[in-house]
Automatic annotation (TrEMBL), chain A:
Gene3D superfamilies: Cytidine Deaminase, domain 2
Record PROSITE patterns: MPN
Cleavable signal peptide: none
MPN domain segment(s): 8-148
Origin superkingdom: Eukaryota
Protein name: MPN domain-containing protein
Taxonomic path: Eukaryota, Viridiplantae, Chlorophyta, core chlorophytes, Trebouxiophyceae
Pfam families the record matches: UPF0172
From TrEMBL, chain B:
Alphabetical UniProt keywords: Endoplasmic reticulum, Membrane, Repeat, TPR repeat
Pfam (any one): TPR_EMC2
EMC2 TPR-like domain sequence ranges: 101-211
One term under GO cellular component: EMC complex
Complex formation: Component of the ER membrane protein complex (EMC).
Record-annotated membrane-spanning stretches: none
Membrane topology designation: Peripheral membrane protein
Organism of derivation: Symbiochloris irregularis
Protein name per Swiss-Prot or TrEMBL: ER membrane protein complex subunit 2
Length: 207, 316
């Protein structure tokens, strides 16, 4: 299914949660879904605003039962928040520092998300840019991928992704200093102890 | 001793900083070794502190174990200065033929990105002399993984488990590699092996069931088998393993869509799992209960639930 033409805005908290998830499990591949709203404009261009990221797994990303369980619950959660909030994308970070590609596992899950919402995108953490980002030498650490006309996920032009932040790398360093990643919980953590909250509500409120 | 104990001790040490006690540091590092946790920045930091301040209070054996542990952690988080000192200290205490210290040196160079040196000087040389060295055979597999050569890692590890078929860690790793390569039937076979070794290990039951469910199939056989393994996990865990409970519910939902596959007692399994899940959530995670109930409704396993003010769940 060809994707609708769209422009994507990624709000700071969503971007930070993706990075914190990757930081919490640096030797593993991690993934999650993106929550946001879709606004149809008069032209064919939709405006997708990503306001939150829900971290899902850091183990066994290719297995379906827990993924399906998580996707249904996160969709309910989004609906519960109101304001048209829904699942609008998928994010992924590879385990290997040199790996810049979207794995077959990641593509399958991204396809699943895209089936329910054709305007959805995929965000891949650009591992090759992580070191610069951590030294505050670059802000470009998240890469937008979209489906082409044959349904294959491809890295897309950075013009289509706007990250809404006053300084993502600086804010990230602040959170690192406070070890915030330790207080972020994904669905995997939740399955091991259901008292751990995968919505991470309030994690990024200013101290 | 559980992960929660580990977290509690870690918080105590974090609060006391440089004034952390010998007992706390020693207990923390011991627990990490026991529980096989990978939290390398913290282990490196606390380990270096313990060795710097309290080395004399450790027995020789524990000192060596701890040094090896902290060296590995330092390499893992690329603290190369600390790693160099620790690895060199171990090298001095043992002959150069020691496989265990050679392994550390190989990891050091691999982490630094000097892969040729790691392979030629430390893996190949050692395997020439001791071709059955488990430590270095595994490093060979790890080196393939580092270079993103999953198929190469799989081939080497298959040869390894042919020689060392009782090595559970190797079977677990092979299973994970197969999953990465989307080779689900082969991954399932690894877990069948693991279940032969340890028939009561709950995670193996759940992971095996998860794999079968993922393979799926329109005749429902895999869902039925998965269901029996989830059920075993629920029993072994006395109803507390949440993954197994969710798995039972998911299998029920899949099988209800397949003709002639649901007997009365099987229906009961799904419903009981749903009931248990709702009880667990009402007690420990009430703000998530609504989303769980909606999932179970969609799976046809509950007609609805309401929470009274006291927080108990009543099924309509």
């Amino acid at each position: 299914m060809p994707s609708t033409e769209a422009a994507y805005t990624l709000q700071e908290n969503a971007a930070l949660k993706i990075l914190l998830h990757a930081a919490k499990y640096p030797s593993a591949a991690v993934n999650g879904v993106l929550l946001g709203t879709v606004a149809q404009s008069e032209s064919d261009l939709s405006a997708v605003t990503i306001v939150d990221a829900v971290p899902l797994f850091h183990t066994f990303l290719s297995l379906s039962p827990m993924l399906e369980t998580a996707l249904v619950q996160v969709a309910s959660y989004a609906k519960q928040q109101g304001f048209g909030l829904q699942v609008v994308g998928y994010y992924h970070a590879n385990a290997s520092l040199l790996d810049k590609d979207l794995s077959p596992t990641a593509r399958k899950i991204a396809d699943k998300v895209h089936q329910r919402q054709p305007a959805s995108c995929t965000i891949l953490v650009d591992n090759t840019k992580l070191q610069e980002f951590c030294h505050q030498e670059s802000e470009e650490v998240l890469q937008l991928w979209l489906q082409d006309s044959s349904g294959t996920w491809k890295p897309s032009s950075s013009d289509l992704l706007t990250v809404k932040s006053e300084g993502l790398s600086m804010r990230y360093q602040q959170l690192q200093a406070q070890h915030t990643y330790r207080r972020l919980f994904d669905f995997d953590d939740h399955l091991n102890d259901i008292a751990k909250d995968w919505s991470n509500d309030g994690l990024l409120n200013e101290p | 001793m559980t992960l929660q104990h580990l977290e509690d001790i870690r918080e105590i040490i974090q609060a006391r900083g440089q004034r952390a006690s010998f007992e706390d540091l020693q207990t923390y590092l011991r627990l990490v070794r026991e529980l096989k946790v990978r939290d390398s920045e913290v282990v490196a930091e606390y380990g270096v502190l313990l060795l710097r301040k309290f080395k004399k209070q450790l027995s020789t054996e524990e000192e060596l174990l701890t040094t090896e542990q902290v060296a590995t952690a330092a390499i893992d988080c690329k603290a190369f200065d600390a790693a160099f000192l620790l690895v060199t200290a171990l090298r001095k205490r043992f002959p150069s033929s020691s496989q265990r210290t050679t392994r550390l040196v190989e990891m050091y160079f691999e982490a630094k990105g000097q892969l040729e040196k790691a392979r030629d000087n430390y893996i190949t040389n050692t395997l020439d002399v001791s071709p059955d060295s488990q430590y270095l055979l595994k490093r060979q597999v790890a080196l393939e993984k580092t270079q993103d050569n999953i198929q190469g890692a799989i081939d080497l590890l298959c040869k390894y488990v042919d020689l060392f078929m009782m090595d559970r860690e190797a079977w677990e790793e092979l299973g994970e590699l197969y999953l990465q390569a989307q080779m689900f039937s082969q991954a399932a076979h690894c877990y069948e092996e693991l279940l032969l070794h340890q028939a009561h290990h709950i995670p193996y039951h759940v992971q095996y069931a998860d794999i079968l469910y993922t393979i799926g199939g329109s005749n429902g056989n895999n869902f039925r088998t998965a269901r029996s393994y989830y059920a075993a996990a629920v029993q072994l865990s006395k109803g507390t393993n949440v993954r197994a409970l969710y798995g039972l519910c998911a299998c029920s939902a899949q099988l209800s869509g397949i003709k002639g596959s649901v007997g009365k007692d099987q229906e009961e399994l799904g419903r009981k799992a749903a009931e248990l899940l709702q009880k667990l959530y009402a007690a420990r995670s009430p703000d998530k209960l609504k989303m769980v109930t909606e999932l179970l409704k969609a799976q046809g396993l509950t007609s609805g639930a309401s929470t009274s003010k006291a927080g108990t769940v009543l099924l309509e």
